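W.,

You were right to be curious about this one. When I first looked at the sequence I had no strong expectations either way, so I just let the prediction run and decided to look at it fresh. Below is the sequence, 59 residues in total, followed by the output.
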Amino acid sequence: MAQQDGSTAPGEHRGPDDHRTTTVEKGPFCTAHCTCGWRGPARRARSLARADAASHTGS
């Protein structure tokens, strides 16, 4: 994957603000994704995927 100027590679962190999470649905599963490249496990419950994202960001 090509990087644009000022971007960081997956797993490379600049600070706590670099962690922006979203949830992505694929079929019956929901997965938390982060801008740092982290991905949580596939979950059937959206609430569990959101909890994974919150524990990743420390929220």
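Here's what jumped out at me. The longest strand covers residues 21-26. And, maybe more interesting for your project: Confidence is low (pLDDT under 50) at residues 1-8.

Coffee later to discuss?

I.
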